[in-house]
Design a protein that fits this description.
Layout: H1 13-20, H2 31-36, H3 40-54, H4 57-60, H5 79-87, E1 90-93, E2 96-99, H6 117-122, H7 126-138, H8 141-157, H9 174-181, H10 184-192, H11 200-220, H12 224-240, H13 247-265, H14 277-296, H15 305-319, H16 344-347, H17 352-358, E3 376-377, E4 383-387, E5 396-400, E6 416-420, E7 423-426, H18 438-444, E8 452-454, E9 479-482, E10 486-493, E11 505-514, E12 524-533, E13 538-546, E14 553-556, E15 562-565, E16 573-578, E17 585-589, E18 600-602, E19 611-613, E20 616-624, E21 627-636, E22 644-648, E23 657-662, E24 667-671
Antiparallel strand pairs: 1-2, 3-4, 4-5, 5-6, 6-7, 8-13, 9-10, 10-11, 11-12, 12-21, 13-20, 14-15, 15-16, 16-21, 17-20, 18-19, 22-23, 23-24
Helix pairs in contact: 3-11, 5-7, 7-8, 7-10, 8-11, 9-11, 9-12, 11-12, 12-13, 12-14, 14-15
Length: 674
Amino acid sequence: MDTTPATGPRLSDQEFFSQHVDTSRPGLAEIPALVARGDLAAARRVFAAEARASLQPERFLSIRRTFRGSNFMYPGESVAEAAERILRLELISCGTPHRFQGEVDWHANPTYNQYKEWPFQLNRHPEWAILAERYRETGDERYAAGFVQLFRSWVRQVLVPPDAPGNATLGWRTIEAGIRMGGAWQWALHSFYRSPHFDDDVLVDWYKSVWEHGWRLRHFHWTHNWLIMEMNGLAQIGLLYPQFREAEAWRTYALERLVEELDKQVYPDGFQYELTTNYHQVNIRNYQWLWDVYAAYDQPVPDAFAPVLERMHEANLRLVMPDGRLPDVNDGSWMQAAPLFDRAVELYPHRADFRWVHSGGPRAPKEGEPPAECSWAFPYAGYVVLRESWQPDAIWALFDGGPFGWAHQHEDKLNLLLHAYGRLLLTEGGNYAYDTSPMRRYVLSTRAHNTVRVDGWDQNRRAHYVHREEAIQEPAGVRWHFGKARDWVEAAYEEGYGPDAGIPVVHRRRVIFLKRPQGALGPCLLVIDRLLPEDDGVHSYQALWHFDTEEAAVISLPEGGVAIASQDPETANLTIVPARLAGLTARVVAGQEEPEWQGWKAILNHQQGQYAPAPTALVEWQAQGPVRLVTLLYPTRAGEECPVVGVEADGDVAATQVRVHLADGEVVALDEEG
């Protein structure tokens, strides 16, 4: 490719027609002679005519896919409203709008803090698919003209780099190239190619730019979820652009890589190795979109796709909370599960449980049946779900005893979430915009999760993390047992605390879900934390509990000790009762910025500025040598009172007994070992 042009496409007509167009195709045979005599205008006309004749919009547009998103649309905005806004050159990226004058500057960054994701995501072009949808609905040529204006400005300004790594440049990172080719660009082509505004010159520049995408995706692709998006795009180029000499080779390469990545990126238990509910869906969607495109053209996808995607869908099902959402873990999202099964119910008709969750799940199922099992363990990903039933008011908890994951990780091992009686009660910091803000640093940290800090420091697996491909086949080391009366799960954090992970304390946590009432003691969870230092020093500990409630307060208990309780009216609440331990104190913070950020949660769509205070209990104590702290988590239905007035449990790590004191004078004796 020519490295000197000031505007794109970088690929010249001479090189494109001479080296990259398959002139053995009927309709393209005269191009070599036209190029030889220098009649490139005629070559363009011949190429454009054949390309238009080869397109099959009735096939492509039969695929069910919509382009909607809070990242690039206003809340509640219709497609018609969005299309008019786009014609005004008012574009939205990362939830932040900007009005361009005259022409879009595809390298612009109007954010107050130069948020790097804004220009990245601007170059994904979902607006082109929105204009295409509106054009198909109305036939109004304004939308075609607006689209061509956007394409021409982009292809002139944003030149493919000749040798930049896949994660370099604003407009040509390979993730954006894959997203464009696996999405909006193909919908735009099949919608606008007959418009008079999409003339031969526009069409040839389009095909040249698509070839540049294929070349870059083939030679500079990246890793993890990026690679799946990249290979989806490359495989679509290989199918939809048969005029390219490289099309079949690109298609073969992309499909082979996608098959390889199923083994490299998906644990045997079905979870994607970044261990986030968000990027788990990114992989599913990109495999599924490619499958749908190939099916529309009566082309097979590799046999390996179906069984692995089925396991990945099942992972979603097993995680679903009683309110029908998935939990926001690592860089995840609190997303509704039902829409994620739109295609799964068609591709796996034997799965009654898929139909159940798709038709409404725990809240209002209309067909199918939930799984027979309630609690569920992911032995490789390390997540363990403790579930009372599949009813919408059931108690549900998620324990994280897994590995660090590859990319998008949080320092959150042994984290615990809790949903009970119709609402989320224990949350976490969640996911937040990928900027350098205090909130971003907070959500990545241990202090944004429900686990334990040591000497004021966080976990630090990142300090010594090295990805190993063979780790995908290694169990996480989490232990569990599910029974009729109780479930339990246990795992340990052993990688150190502090800046260099040099504070040598092991944290072992066991969570026991008491599912059946014992006298006046209703269903609840016991959390047993054992802190095991490898030195003789005195260490300070801080157990964290992030309430997803309006308020929470510390209360003194009649049996001595303290509890932390929410008291939201007319809804479920949570009381947290740590066992009495010498020197133990508790306090609640919310919306704190100094001396460090604490008591926050991401809200809405985890874009910049979208966060709110979350009442967070800090239970603090000091100890020399090993120590055990037992904490009871007691959810109550609306209007109910927590009957627990004290928890008694020895701080000796060898101890296993727990005594729960109730308001009616009863003492319930429990043992960790059952």
